[in-house]
Design a protein that fits this description.
Helix content is 11%, strand content 44%. By secondary structure, it is mainly beta. The protein has three domains: 25-131, Immunoglobulin-like (Sandwich), CATH 2.60.40.3500; 136-242 and 350-466, no CATH class; 249-342, no CATH class. The chain starts with a helix and ends in a 5-residue tail after the last strand.
């Protein structure tokens, strides 16, 4: 009997050891999924045999929270459960390979989240917060801090990309121009790379052919002229950055007369006189119904044509049509022409300037100039992706892009953008081009989510480059 009992004990011990070994060999598995929904959050609980190490990723397109478990298995049939919740669409358990399980939470709107594990019994808990305010900060290099800020608000979630730049850290703000010319467009990442920039955001409004709608001044030369006084940012020789509504005027003087300029480096209209410089492109692109005068660097007429005149190095072209052509009809080769342009006494001294608008903040107060700057609904209407630039009280520079037109970020109105810039500490700020053009690049990589679903080609941008703001 003793031998029999001993045999039973040995068999029982062997069975326990085998069972334990089998249990240890079996990968952790999801057994059940439970939900708890309130007005503030959704809690998803995964009951498991054990909770292994896991990786959490918030995927933006499609919008979902992914929890990958490299050493786990799905138990039984793959599971997909739909939730009747405005923020959370469904939960899936996916077997993505041998010994790999993915827990996918499909989202209707952006949420905050916290993922943690509990023991006895083993559970993986995911809290999805409908009201959230989360920031991730990164020091790009001394003097530049990048913040990714996502938060909920009554009008919908927003995702903002914020650069805070200290000008005293050997950094300069300068415009970058697509392909080095007005004609044509280029991606911001490509422009940034060409300028060896640390970071950049999109800049002016523009036409599909690349013509800039508004003011652009680079290294003291006017590249594009505004039709009306709109807000611009200027960088001055002492390193000062300023914002103001800037107007432009220009004229030419020649033997026996004077004529008003209508613009710089843009398409010539009826009865207009346009100045084309080397920044425009290889030729004026005009039709044959005008008169064009090639000026050398001394302002002497070297050739006269009708349309699509080549713009040689060091030369400019005056292109006249209709009434303007009659005013210049007496010009001949060898005549001296003086071209004068002005942005006003203060802004004539600016090294660089880039216009867009409207103004958002002036001297610490909300100061929207939408109507006075004659912006229509394409800029002023509704919520949209936005780009802005501002200055803080202590002289630091803010470059901000707010995503929009997708579930993770609903965008901002101009007033909401002004309030947001004020919240960031801006005492002066202006709006830049927005919509699908809103982009931020850091070390040649787009860090925001353009609403076109891809990087849009634009006309120009504002870049942060190593160097002094003073010129």
């Amino acid at each position: 009997m003793t031998k029999f009992r001993r045999s039973i004990c040995l068999l029982l011990a062997a069975w326990i050891v085998a069972a334990l070994a089998l249990a240890q060999a079996a990968p952790p598995a999801v057994q059940k999924v439970r939900f708890h929904q309130t007005q503030e959050k959704v809690r998803v609980v995964f009951d498991m045999t054990a909770v292994p190490d896991f990786n959490v990723t918030l995927e933006k397109d499609p919008l979902r929270l992914l929890i990958d478990m490299p050493a786990a298995a799905a138990k039984g049939a793959l599971l997909k459960t739909a939730l009747n919740d405005p923020f959370v669409a469904a939960v899936e358990i996916q077997d993505i390979g041998p010994g790999q399980v993915r827990l996918a939470i499909n989202l209707n709107m952006m949420v905050g989240y916290k993922v943690f594990k509990l023991a006895k019994p083993a559970r993986l808990v995911v809290d999805l917060f409908k009201n959230y305010d989360q920031k991730k900060e990164e020091q790009i290099r001394p003097g530049i801090k990048y913040t990714f800020w996502q938060r909920s608000q009554p009008s919908g979630p927003i995702q903002a990309h914020i650069l805070l730049i200290d000008p005293r850290a050997g950094l300069a703000l300068q415009p970058v121009l697509s392909n080095g010319a007005v004609a044509g467009l280029e991606t911001l990442a490509s422009m940034s790379a060409g300028a060896k920039a640390i970071a950049a955001v999109n800049g002016s409004y523009f036409a599909l052919n690349g013509e800039i709608i508004g003011l652009l001044k680079i290294n003291g030369e006017i590249v594009s002229s505004p039709n009306i006084a709109r807000t611009a940012v200027g960088i001055f020789p002492d390193g000062r950055i300023a914002f103001d509504q800037v107007n432009w005027q220009g004229y030419v003087e020649f033997p026996g007369g004077r004529a008003e300029l209508n613009g710089v480096n843009r398409s010539r209209g009826d009865d207009e006189l346009i100045l084309y410089t080397g920044y425009f492109g290889p030729s004026t692109g005009t039709n044959a119904y005008g008169a064009e005068y090639v000026l050398n660097q001394d302002g002497v007429v070297t050739a006269i044509g009708q349309g699509n005149t080549s713009i040689e190095d060091g030369c400019t072209v005056l292109s006249a049509h209709g009434v303007a052509a009659k005013e210049l009809a007496g010009l001949k080769v060898g005549d001296k022409v003086t071209v004068s342009q002005s942005l006003g006494r203060e802004w004539d001294a600016a090294v660089h300037a880039l216009g867009a608008g409207p103004m958002l903040i002036k001297d610490g107060s909300i100061y929207l100039t939408t109507k006075t700057e004659e912006f229509g609904s394409d800029v002023a209407g509704g919520r949209a992706p936005r780009t802005a630039i501002g200055l803080t009280k202590d002289g630091q520079l803010l470059l901000v892009v707010v995503d929009g037109r997708h579930a993770a970020s609903s965008g901002l109105t101009l007033l909401e953008l002004a309030l947001f810039m004020q919240e960031l500490g801006a005492v002066d700020a202006m709006n830049l081009d927005g919509g699908g053009s809103s982009q931020m690049v850091i070390y040649d990589k787009v860090v925001n989510r353009p609403s076109d679903g891809r990087e849009r080609k634009v006309a120009d941008g504002l870049a942060i480059v190593p160097g002094s703001l003073a010129k």
